[in-house]
Amino acid sequence: MPRGRPRKIDPNDALKAAMNILWERGYDRTSMADLVSATGMAKPGLYANLGDKDEIFQKALRLYQEEIGAPPINDLVTSPEPLKQSLRTALRGVLHAKEGSGLPEGCFIVNNSFACSAQSQQLKQALQDLNVERRDAFLLRFRRAETEGELPDSTDIKALADFFAGQAAAVSSMAQAGLSLTELHKMIEVSLSVLPEDPPRGGAQG
Amino acid sequence: MPRGRPRKIDPNDALKAAMNILWERGYDRTSMADLVSATGMAKPGLYANLGDKDEIFQKALRLYQEEIGAPPINDLVTSPEPLKQSLRTALRGVLHAKEGSGLPEGCFIVNNSFACSAQSQQLKQALQDLNVERRDAFLLRFRRAETEGELPDSTDIKALADFFAGQAAAVSSMAQAGLSLTELHKMIEVSLSVLPEDPPRGGAQG
DNA sequence: CTATTAAAATACCGAACCGTATTTTATTTA
DNA sequence: TAAATAAAATACGGTTCGGTATTTTAATAG
């Protein structure tokens, strides 16, 4: 056993709890006192283990991205699923909360990308980078779709990637507006209808 | 002339200035001190003329809706333009800032609908109501489109309305992510492609 | 010029905020 | 037990916040 007084709370657990409350309440509306009660760790302990509020937020952001945000996006790029199905999965990935109980609704990144106009430049940049990362994942998938014939060559895949990156915000916003899960799924189906009819079948292009 | 010391600042001008900074920075990141310097009106004057911070925000919200938010939505419902064109106009209406100089980017309502999980119930409700209002305007337009044959009867116009209401957030978010105006317009064109092809002519673009 | 009115300007208050210095407590080593 | 270590718990400091009480200033009315 280590030397001094034993830890009451594993810093990793604390970070996870911090992520959840930051996800739920956002950066501005979460105080250090909130983080203290959410984590069960006293303030000096938080600073010693996780740093100041900005650092905690950034660590929470990374944790979210690694454990929650990135997987569906990586699947999007790597999975052999057909285009439309992989996009469906990716978009539904924004709705963790409503299905898997307990988790906050919407996307942590999107939710905090608003109301950040005067945020610390570091945080602003970190959020923008993650948004770009998601957009690029879509782009990558569309490039593959193009070469594999899932999309006509004439497609403006850059615009398509921007569009789908934006759908994360669309879905998050309507989730916060109180739509039910099935309504949100219908929204997503509408988004998917911007794609050409499922098997594009050769050169049907106009 | 009235009795006492003359006003330095017209309360209407102050409200307009307050709206702009609240739009730009959001509720949480705008302090009363910010409102003081933005309006040029000292704090006690603000309270006397516009009320406390919540009241000012609500008044700003109403002003935004009346002067900026509602017009393109009303046009959507009332104008005789064909469906797709009226939707295009409505969605582009979210991008005031980038075209008409000076105005903040994105939609005031959308920008503040995030990070409000613990906001005062009043404000939360006011924001939700405005979001619903917009969604209903889309719905109204789609109902008309259905009866006028602009949409097939089989269309799920409720889902379509949710989708387009969500596009306000999509566009706002990508605007904040730094997309150019033409990129944003392309995004909007992609959104519009969920509609059934009207008489096959060349794609409109701006 | 004096009184009155109404707004501006200043100064102030208590609470909440982020962050830290200090003390207590629990454990291991000697 | 006593010294040493490391974490928890408490208390505190400076700042900013939303909101208000108080004073000063600029105008009109008599």
Key phrases:
homodimer; 206 residues; mainly alpha; Tetracycline Repressor, domain 2; 66% helix; DNA-binding
Per CATH, the superfamily of chain A is Tetracycline Repressor, domain 2
Largest interface: A-B, 51 and 52 residues
* Multimeric status of the protein: homodimer
Q: Would you give the CATH topology of chain A?
A: Tetracycline Repressor, domain 2
End-to-end span of chain A in angstroms? Answer: 71 Å
The structure class of chain A reads mainly alpha
| Rg of chain A | 20 Å
Name the poorly predicted regions of chain A: 200-206
Helix-strand topology string of chain A: HHHHHHHHHH
Total domain modules of chain A: 1
Describe the fold and architecture.
The structure is a homodimer of 206-residue chains. By secondary structure, chain A is mostly helical. The first copy, chain A, has one domain: Orthogonal Bundle (Tetracycline Repressor, domain 2). In chain A, 66% of the residues lie in helices and 0% in strands. Chain A has 10 helices and no strands. Chain A has helices spanning 11-25, 32-39, 43-50, 53-78, 83-92, 96-99, 108-113, 121-147, 157-176, 181-192. In chain A, α1 packs across α4 (53-78), α4 packs parallel to α8 and α8 crosses α9. The model of chain A is unreliable at 200-206 (pLDDT under 50). At the A-B interface, α7, α8, α9 and α10 of A face α7, α8, α9 and α10 of B. The structure holds a DNA duplex (30 and 30 nucleotides).
